[in-house]
Amino acid sequence: MPIACLAWGSDGHKMMAKIAEDYLDNHVKDSIRYYLGGEDFPDCSVWMDEIKSDSTYDYMFQYHYINIPEGEEYRPTENPNIVNQLQAVIERLQHREGRTKEEIAVDIKILVHLMGDLHQPLHAGYAVDRGGNDVKVSFVGEESNLHKVWDIDIIEDQRINIDSCYKWLGDYSVKEEKTDIVKWMKESRNNLKPAYEDVRNGKVDKTYVLKYKPLIEQRLLQSGLRLSNILNEVFA
């Protein structure tokens, strides 16, 4: 079931991509710049949202998320979803010999975007409400939906930026872990239920916003650091 969304919005995606760029080895930056043809790395992070109006890319729509019914655990499936596609695109980039520059550029853009999506809790959501898109809420007095609250509203309302994300850097080691897409998806999933339960009477108030602002900053930071690790390894 499609989800009409822009995970993290363009601001969030570009923030996490800039964080990743800050931690890329210089020769990796050069390689990525070559494949992207000089396109700005943070700008490439929103390509997958920009192409949603082009029916040629409709097959990618399901790449942005994974649906798991409430109360059920993740089970591997061959159906297209964000977990499968991230695992596949990393594999393709690791074995890129014989592939065209253009094909590799597309895979870089897919990887960068989906790493952002993976860390947004509503992208490990429920099909029944399209990842919170059908959950109408009042956001500090304005009409919105739960997915948009996490994508855009809190980021804009609280002026979340790279500096506010970096203040959490002391909690993480840049080389902290091995790539584990399923584990990272489950982190998002673990934050999903509270994101629903803390909405009171259809209203997202300042208490909610201030509670989840730190989590959003931390998830943007984590996704950027983890993306840098993947790219540094792939293009080592």
Overview in brief:
With 236 residues, the protein is mainly α. Helices cover 53% and strands 6% of the residues. Helix 1 packs across helix 11 (206-234) and helix 6 packs antiparallel against helix 11 (206-234).
Describe the model:
By secondary structure, this protein is mainly alpha-helical. It has a single domain, classed as P1 Nuclease. 53% of the residues lie in helices and 6% in strands. The chain contains eleven helices and five strands, in the order ααααβααβββααααβα. Strands 4-3-5 form a three-stranded mixed sheet. Strands 1-2 form a two-stranded parallel ribbon. The N terminus is likely disordered.
Q: What structural keywords apply?
A:
mainly alpha; 236 residues; two-stranded parallel sheet; disordered N terminus; three-stranded mixed sheet; 53% helix; P1 Nuclease
